[in-house]
């Protein structure tokens, strides 16, 4: 056990995964609320297209999603080509890429519950708040956020679990570079390839414990 | 004076109404489901935008398609009481009442409102622990404390049993007098209309087919037939010596 914790790669992958999950959590919270509200409120062609993009990682193979991101955000990708190289996001095979992979993978799991709660009842409460003199921005903070907090919480827990276990998109965008972008999930794969089954088992137990914690958190949240 | 002159295509129904409503007492929009009653008050509150027309309350223009004026709901000062109450479930009754908290001289105070509606004993409860009648009284109080210039009520008693209805009707009845704020109430119930209305607008298929005081629309011998459903009303339904507050 002590030997495993002295393994630089494993310690790095645990810390990288923790940092990634934390950054993705903050991004999920902000984007989940804004996108969930927008998609719950608007029913048009643009919102339909955004809804499709948000839902895509749920129904499209992660490796495929990763490839699309690579094609979009790469140094010679679509965004760089369209802007003549003026905007060339330097994120591929970096820690930022790992965070984006975790963010994209978990996004639908936050947006969908929030969107559903807003469509179900929150829009009606928001209408009431507007007639009571609150602006749209005040309504968002005073009514929408308190009303969806449970759905948001459940979505965030699920998304964090998804971010922890993300492999496909991370592999394409992050590149599985040892000591740079090897998250816990990728490190399990690396350990098995190196015949280090003890390390792989340790990381599996670690992820399994977190999954259990996620499960019980969700159960507690739904009982509230 | 409230002026509503609007056109709005909603699915198969064209709402085309041009009415002027007195700025005192209780005006009832009366008609069956699908007549356009709720859409009409939603347009007045700013929750639904007309295709064209003009809406104003006491000279303040809420909507004018020609002038391209469309005030957002928060600037219209309409105290809207919804059919489904729409109390904020995560706030106590007291916090619901203080949600709008517009402190202006004209508005009734918190204590006065709580006393008027008889809800002092409910202040610490969450809305989920209120009965239908209690919740609707809290909704009225919340709208009252937002210092509205007009009350809009969308079938406020439709989900209540007759006992709760009898409990709520006196509160609504004394509201214009106690607060000095006119009420527009939507209902399909003849009983509610006859007990509360000073002025009636009868709606059918998106059009205003008749309007006037209750006496003018229903009580004159030549108008004892309901203009909406053609039912004949006998005198026993009519509140005797009802004092009309609208001339």
CATH class of chain A: Mainly Alpha
Number of strands of chain A: 0
User: Biggest chain pair contact, residues each?
Assistant: A-B, 16 and 23 residues
* Count of helix runs of chain B: 7
Question: Which residues of chain B form runs of ≥5 with pLDDT under 50?
Answer: 234-247
Measure the end-to-end span of chain A. Answer: 38 Å
Structural shape of chain B: globular
Largest sheet of chain A: none
Fourth-tier CATH superfamily name of chain B: P-loop containing nucleotide triphosphate hydrolases
Helix percent band of chain A: over 70%
C-alpha termini separation of chain B: 13 Å
Number of helices of chain A: 10
Strand content of chain B: 25-35%
- How many discrete domains of chain A? 1
CATH class division of chain B: Alpha Beta
Low-confidence stretches of chain A: none
What is the CATH H-level superfamily of chain A? Answer: MetI-like
Helix and strand succession of chain B? Answer: EEEHEEEEHHHEHEHEEH
Radius of gyration of chain A: 20 Å
State the assembly state of the protein chains: heterodimer
User: What is the CATH topology assignment of chain B?
Assistant: Rossmann fold
